[in-house]
Design a protein that fits this description.
Layout (H helix, E strand, L loop, with lengths): L7 H7 L6 H21 L19 H9 L5 E10 L9 H10 L9 H4 L6 E10 L3 E8 L2 E8 L2 E6 L4 E6 L16 H9 L6 E11 L2 E10 L6 E9 L5 E8 L7 E9 L17 E4 L18 H5 L7 E3 L6 E5 L9 H8 L4 E5 L2 E7 L4 E5 L3 E5 L3 H11 L1
Parallel strand pairs: 6-12
Antiparallel strand pairs: 1-2, 1-11, 2-3, 3-4, 4-5, 5-6, 7-8, 8-9, 9-10, 10-11, 13-14, 14-18, 15-16, 16-17, 17-18
Length: 401
């Protein structure tokens, strides 16, 4: 490993009354929704790697990051294996209900990506992916006796759920480089791009040897927080030695054990996919839901969004502020009594026993935990969330008042 290591510092520098039932229902719903956000913005147990590490020329972390940044891969197809182990309990479908509410409630469609892709929050899944430039991408979630496809072709975005024979149709974002609101990260590159936003003076960045992924030689880039108080142990990105494309992304927790989130190619080709791969016509008899039919908002604007890890985690949440810096940053917002939450009785019965009561100068609240994301919801409806420990959340809440 030593020949591939770079200087950590240099690389990092460069590169009290009880709330009303309405408030209580909202504060229980928020942690569950946040978990879905985290899974969609941070990354998704490692993909299969071939035995035998390749012997590659030496490279520094800065050079490898630059290689990733200048990668010009636009055409590819392959199979991606996604596994997620956030340590979530069985929520009885609550997370799916929340996602369905975000997608339009009872009037929504099972083909809406906002609802469908929440399945990636737990378990192991197989995806087929294809891309031909910025205007053509396809992702298929392979299920037992069914398949869900998300297709971006020009100005159209289609979602198709073969199980229900439902179709979702939206319009692609007009601005260059902005992901349509229905699209979710699906490849190691998507997740690596998000992780690299966290590289600053609080991050150690090294090249830790090589790997053989999906038949390709790769360097292993490792990001580790220098700060204590975060739940993130390390992020590893296997970068294709020839093209600079990330082939595998793995996030392990500070508590140790298996990876929390991982996504990696098990097979990949850089040949241009056939144009027909991106064609889609709604099947006969399918129910088609247009994006505007159920009040779906257009692409979210990124102007003014908070920076840092917590900003990435909770982008789009109203009234968001960020406390702290680097890996210890915590997003905070007022959950209020907005709709979209389960009933108070359901929340009390299902989630009330899952959180840990805490108190401080901020008052009283409950911490809801996963192996990666922790959320503190105060009794007056304020939410503090981040990839940080319970103690860091309490400190942030005390400082935020």
């Amino acid at each position: 490993m030593a020949p591939y290591e770079s200087d950590d510092s240099a690389s990092a520098e460069e590169a009290h009354d009880l709330p009303s039932k309405r408030h209580r229902a909202a504060r229980y719903a928020v942690p569950v929704a946040v978990v879905g956000v985290a899974a969609a913005t941070i990354g998704l147990v490692p993909a299969l790697a071939d035995s035998g590490d390749p012997d590659l020329p030496k490279i520094t972390a800065q050079q490898l990051i630059q290689k990733m940044a200048t990668s010009d891969v636009e055409q590819l197809s392959g199979t991606v294996k996604v596994s997620t182990d956030l340590g979530l309990p069985d929520l009885g479908g609550l997370e799916s209900n929340l996602a369905s509410g975000a997608a339009g409630g009872a009037g929504g469609s099972s083909a809406d990506p906002k609802a469908k892709l929440t399945e990636l929050v737990s378990g192991t899944h197989t995806l087929r992916v294809a891309a031909d430039g910025p205007d053509r991408q396809k992702l298929s979630l392979v299920e037992n006796a069914a398949e869900y496809s998300l297709i971006h072709n020009g100005t159209d975005v289609w979602g198709y759920d073969s199980r229900s024979n439902e179709v979702f149709h939206g319009t692609a974002a007009a601005r260059d480089g902005e992901r349509h609101r229905s699209e979710a990260p699906a490849t190691p590159k998507d997740f690596a791009d998000e992780a690299l936003k966290s590289v600053d003076a609080t991050t150690s960045v090294t090249v830790d040897g090589t790997a053989h992924i999906a038949g390709r030689d790769a360097y292993r880039l490792v990001l580790k927080p220098k700060q204590s108080g975060t739940t993130v142990g390390a992020i590893s990105v296997a970068v294709d030695a020839k093209t600079g494309l990330p082939l595998k992304f793995t996030l392990t927790p500070a508590s140790g054990g298996a990876a929390v989130l991982d996504v990696g190619f098990t097979q990949v080709s850089f040949a241009r996919p056939a144009a027909s791969a991106f064609d889609f016509t709604p099947p006969k008899g399918a129910k088609v839901t247009e994006e505007e039919d159920h009040g779906t908002a257009g692409p979210s604007h990124r102007e003014g969004r908070p920076e840092g890890n917590a900003g990435d985690l909770a982008e789009g949440l109203g009234g968001l502020r960020v406390l702290g810096k680097g890996w210890n940053s915590v997003a905070t917002f007022d959950a209020g009594g907005e709709g979209g939450a389960p009933s108070a009785s359901a929340a009390d019965g299902l989630l009330g026993s899952l959180g840990d009561p805490v108190s401080g100068t901020f008052g009283k609240g409950t911490v809801f935990s996963t192996r990666l994301v922790n959320a503190l919801v105060t009794d007056d409806g304020q939410v503090y969330v981040g990839t940080v420990t319970k103690g860091t959340l309490v400190k942030a809440a005390n400082a935020g008042r």
